[in-house]
Specification:
The chain has 6 helices and 10 strands; from the N terminus they run E-E-E-H-E-E-H-E-H-E-E-E-H-E-H-H. It is of the alpha/beta class. The two termini are about 30 Å apart.
C-alpha cells in the first residue's frame, strides 16, 4: 500500500528562544535533514505547520493545521491532507533520522493502523507510521479534548517496534534525538562531528 510522509513542523520553539527548524547542524538547516530522508524514502512528502509561508522556498506541499489540538492536530491534518492511505509522520526537529529505520517501520505496517517504535526511554509516536484508518479515532479524541497521542492506541491495531528491532538499524537510537534547546543543538553538532553511530 502506498505510503507518504508527513513532516510535523508545528512547534513554537519556546525552549530554543527562536525558530529552530532552520538552525544549521553541520552547515545544513535542521528541517532539511529531515526532509532529505523523507524525500529519499517516499514519493509524496508534505509539511504541516502553523505558518506555511516560512516554507515557501521548498517545492513541497505545506498545509496549515486544521484544528488546534497540539501535535495530535498536526497528525490529524497530515493524514487528512496527504493522498497516500498511510503516512510516516516525523517531527521536523529530528536531525539524525535514519532512512533504514523509516523504511523498516513502513515494512511492518501491513494490517496495522499504527506502527510506533520504542526506545530505551519509551514510545516515539513522532517517528511512526499512521493509516487514514486512525482518523475517526483521532476526531473523537479531539472532540473530547484528549490530545495525548498514546491515548489513541487502545482503540487501534498497533504494531510496537521493540527497542531490540530498532537497535539493529540505529544502535544509538539517534533517530529519536530531537532538538529543543541550545544545549540540544550543541550536542547535535558534537554528535555529527564525532560521526557517532552514523
Amino acid at each position: 500500500m502506498e505510503t507518504g510522509a508527513v513532516i510535523l513542523a508545528g512547534g513554537n520553539s519556546k525552549r530554543m528562544g527562536k525558530d529552530k527548524l532552520f538552525l544549521p547542524i553541520g552547515g545544513k538547516p535542521m528541517f532539511e535533514r529531515v526532509l532529505e530522508v523523507c524525500l529519499e524514502a517516499f514519493k509524496e512528502v508534505i509539511v504541516v505547520c502553523k505558518t506555511p509561508e516560512i516554507f515557501s522556498g521548498y517545492p513541497i506541499p505545506v498545509f496549515r493545521d486544521l484544528v488546534d489540538a497540539g501535535v495530535l492536530g498536526g497528525l490529524y491534518t497530515g493524514l487528512k491532507s496527504i493522498r497516500s492511505p498511510k503516512a510516516f509522520c516525523a517531527a521536523a526537529d529530528m536531525p539524525f533520522l535514519k532512512v533504514e529505520l523509516v523504511t523498516y517501520l513502513v515494512s511492518l505496517s501491513d494490517g496495522y493502523d499504527v506502527v510506533v517504535p520504542k526506545g530505551p526511554d519509551g514510545l516515539h509516536p513522532l517517528c511512526a507510521v499512521y493509516g487514514k484508518s486512525c482518523l475517526k479515532v483521532m476526531e473523537g479524541n479531539i472532540v473530547r479534548g484528549e490530545f495525548k497521542i498514546s491515548s489513541l492506541f487502545p482503540f487501534l491495531k498497533v504494531r510496537f517496534c521493540e527497542p531490540e528491532e530498532v537497535a539493529k538499524l540505529d544502535p544509538c537510537f539517534l533517530s529519536f534525538f530531537n532538538v529543543n534547546t541550545p544545549e540540544d543543538l550543541s550536542k547535535a553538532e558534537t554528535l555529527l562531528k564525532a560521526q557517532r553511530c552514523r
